[in-house]
Amino acid sequence: MRHVIRQAAAWQGSGIRCVMATVVRTWGSAPHGPGASMLVTEDGRIVGSVSGGCVEAAVIAAAEEVFAGGPPVVERWGIGDEDAFAVGLTCGGTIEVLIREVTPEMPLGRVSADLADGSPVALVTPLDGGGSLAVGRGAVSGSLGGTAADRVAVLAAEGMLARGESGLVNAGEGAAPDGERPGAGSPAAGTACVPGRELLVQSFAPRPGLLIFGATEFARSLADFGAALGHRVTVCDARPTFADPGRFPGADEVVADRPDRWFRAHEDLIDPTTAVCVLTHDPRFDIPVLTRALRSAAGYVGAMGSRRTHEDRVARLRAAGTTEAQLAVLRSPIGLDLGGRGAAETALSVLAEIVAVRRGGSGLPLSAGTRPIHAR
Prior knowledge:
Number of helices: 11
Number of strands: 16
Structural class: alpha/beta
Order of helices and strands: HEEEHEHEHEEEHEEEHEEHEHEHHEH
Helix content: 25-40%
Distance between the termini: 18 Å
Largest sheet: 6 strands, parallel
């Protein structure tokens, strides 16, 4: 939802009135989790989503009340409501959405600036509408109305940001229990359900890294798709002719260097959100960088090649000292079996596997399984 925050900051800076609707709680099957946001301007423009299309019309109606002078409100919509079919949320889930006007005091410019330079930042908003805070690396903007309240909010935001999580935290006594499930007596759709002093923390951790070693034609599509999915993309190749930034408009950086040397110099930046894709097909480059990648904290390591290439690669990695436990991490041949052809479809299969590994997906058709579509 980074684009929603950026757009909100732009409209705020231009003096355009807009209302921000943000998911604060979900139960059951819900397309978006806490932190997902949607903007509605006074003249009817819309950016973002809170439910994938299910309740957006109801959100717009609630936004009109806020434009008319109504206070911030938390609305709840769910399948148990009598007018669930009229609202559209018939997928079995229940969501609560905070709806409030974007005010000049909200530190959205600070959040947008941190997003632009890749710094981690969190936006903290009380459900009662009392102010807001932006919390980044050693810097705080905005206020919740007092030093004590700000201190609690900063501590909560730093903890959530360190885990890359968005959601509600209690800020002292009087707050409603987080996670209280709606039952038979739950408010109906459209009923205001403003709890006590609870804080919504929207965390924007640094983008996950996608490291592509081998500036091939497959790498071009992989870089574009990876960028579209929110990765920070690096393409590295030892051949300067191939490592041409003009060939990779989707990449954040294109480096002419030996893959293993670049990896060694940047190993402190590798974490479990990092995906490593080795595409060169050349053991002179593949084996040294894979040896390092499989010993690193990277959450995904894949290598392109045929099954025969894979067998030769595994033998070489064993000879280089790679353990069986490390080899078990290697995704080779890279990607899911989509039956695709060409660079774009291959890139799609690779990104699909990266998402499945990161999110704990099976990679199977949803029609072949029975577990919830939107796992918690």
